[in-house]
Amino acid sequence: MNSKPECIVCLFKQALNTAKVVTEDPAVHLEVLRRLTPRVAGATLDQTPALLSRPAYEVVSEVTGVSDPYRELKQETNRLALQMLPLLWEQVVRIPDPLDAALRAAAAGNIIDLGIGGHVFDIERDVTRMMGAPLAVSELAAFRDELGTGRKLLYLGDNAGEIVLDRLLVEEILRTGTEVVYTVKSGPIINDATMEDARVSGMTSLVEVIETGSDHIGVNWDAISDDFRRAFEAADVIVSKGQGNFESCCDVRANLYFLLKAKCRVVAEELGAEEGQVVFKRRG
Known about the structure:
By secondary structure, the chain is α/β, with parallel strands linked by helices. It is built from 13 helices and seven strands. The protein has a seven-stranded mixed β-sheet, sandwiched between helices. β3, α10 and β4 (208-211) form a beta-alpha-beta unit.
């Protein structure tokens, strides 16, 4: 999907949010915005919002010298999500349709987004609330038909913390006999999951985990790893988590299912949903 003028405004918000994570010094915040301005001046809208927003994080690192501003927050969200996991497991196994329950648990994890909306959320409250409500759009019936022995599924992971809740859905998919490969970023960007988060979350003990090939938001198709390319081409079905993956994959010709909360109007319109809704929607 292409960017919209609103994405330029969001770019500055993301830079300011990230600078505030590193320091409370307003002088540093202002310097970040000053340095970002000329980087954005020549921006065009014929690129994805995910790619457009990358300079926001590059500038913060340049000004502050901190390459992974969200590291401590990622560790904290992993810890909180792991604390919740046993209780969520109990809920999933008690429900008549565990795959549906696991899908909603994984969807609930998508609230953990530290870039677009800052970091004001309550994991326990929000996940519990979303577990008790249906998704605004759910193509679970079609997805269920995709699963089975001998089938291959590629799961595009999103955030730290969220990766813990993804385990619930991955395990239910594995129960169908479907082979799963899970992807993480090759380096830190916002609070996106890396291989470190995959190990902490326990995902590496469940399935093969590979890296996308870059530290870009979503998927940078010009810099994907050989492992990612092979897994993508071999997959019968692909689950894409989160807004960044949607922005960079919605125009890709593949059997894709997008699982995310529409966190802005631009993405909501692209999805045919309302802002704030959580959807599980098949490409096209």
